[in-house]
Amino acid sequence: xxxxxxxxxxxxxxxxxxxxxxxxxxxxxxxxxxxxxxxxxxxxxxxxxxxxxxxxxxxxxxxxxxxxxxxxxxxxxxxxxxxxxxxxxxxxxxxxxxxxxxxxxxxxxxxxxxxxxxxxxxxxxxxxxxxxxxxxxxxxxxxxxxxxxxxxxxxxxxxxxxxxxxxxxxxxxxxxxxxxxxxxxxxxxxxxxxxxxxxxxxxxxxxxxxxxxxxxxxxxxxxxxxxxxxxxxxxxxxxxxxxxxxxxxxxxxxxxxxxxxxxxxxxxxxxxxxxxxxxxxxxxxxxxxxxxxxxxxxxxxxxxxxxxxxxxxxxxxxxxxxxxxxxxxxxxxxxxxxxxxxxxxxxxxxxxxxxxxxxxxxxxxxxxxxxxxxxxxxxxxxxxxxxxxxxxxxxxxxxxxxxxxxxxxxxxxxxxxxxxxxxxxxxxxxxxxxxxxxxxxxxxxxxxxxxxxxxxxxxxxxxxxxxxxxxxxxxxxxxxxxxxxxxxxxxxxxxxxxxxxxxxxxxxxxxxxxxxxxxxxxxxxxxxxxxxxxxxxxxxxxxxxxxxxxxxxxxxxxxxxxxxxxxxxxxxxxxxxxxxxxxxxx
Length: 586
Fold this sequence. Notes:
This protein is mostly beta strands.
């Protein structure tokens, strides 16, 4: 008992310290004068994406600014400071700079084309020293000091970018928590367009054996009375089950751009009492996957709008909610008509309000107990049947569920499937239920191929037509992997090497050419690595999409109009290798 008391005491002290640091970080950002930060580009800042938009399994962590559809726009340090981190990656932010500022904040510039010298020289030297295409560097504070307005590089399209733009963030330096630049008003822009409320969905909930069971969503079309004022197309009181919650489908626009944007916050009132509210001012990267609970995961998939859950699930620990009653659930008593207002806000102070009436429907039967095993989201859970073994860690689910797993070979047409399944097709619960942390999945393989290292687990699309690489390690007749998705799974073997297509013919004369490139693809497990040498010397490649490019000026190889030999080795995630050799003159 004494140790337990000590544990509680020190945990409380630790929590207070962390909260104090977080509060100080928030003050660093929020207390900065509006003119502390200069614009990152000397052009009109038009946005293509805003802060905390709902993306696949994460919130968008910054602001995307347009660069006129072109690369090469000069980028500038927004305040005095020093370069604290430099990244080069074929994914994520691509070429990215982090600048720490004296007020305890960090500015981030992602998807760059090129860094200014001497930063570019330092990065090139480190890539060759480490013999790595992807690097994450932390130079000393005195190596690259910058002043406000100093050029730091050029905008680009590197990393996981679908078009030229600048991804920009302002973070608290200590916690690396990004903040909503728009809501803070650091870069004012014209926006007098209120959010567009598209549809309203109501999901009834029954509790069966302590497990919340959601019924089929009912959708209500909306109409607009005037700018920012909405009502349900059916103006009579909506007849609802006693317990449930709303999902608001909404989107936003800004002046002078055709892009759509995410919603900043939502309030909901019943009979004048607020029962639900949130604002997306900031978040920790460790919390970003909670986007799958702030939105309705099943409805959000594939939608260009945001489908915002106006309720807080039991396992949702995202600290953006305030003034929430009964977790936002709508609990209707007998008889009365109730008035509901739902207001959505954008990050520039505009709002739209949906007003409607609800009443309790009569004659509803209690929900029948669904098939499956009741699983408490606060506890770990394991299940084994028919050669399939899964283990779900505690707190991986946002709510308790009735879990099911079974063989479902009918989900895939073996004659038209892109790959041969070596085991039964397993349906692992419901693909519309998200997982916050990964579960372990193990499948028994009775007929082991000649090379078991080429075995892997595949996740199959809902229509049964596409096999997606999940990975896995084989041992003693079983293959195991971790995954954050429920759905259809099986085991396949991948023996096909990546495809490599050079941009030049063998023996080509490349004098006057500044770079060479290759198109590298893999039809299943994906390209894991690529290594190349010219005349036996390792060279660096940059990757954008499926294209890898080497700039001749980035190596110390001497070219004197003679013949050279390039060797490129490309490996996929199942260990299949394609090695090609090309000669050229330069």
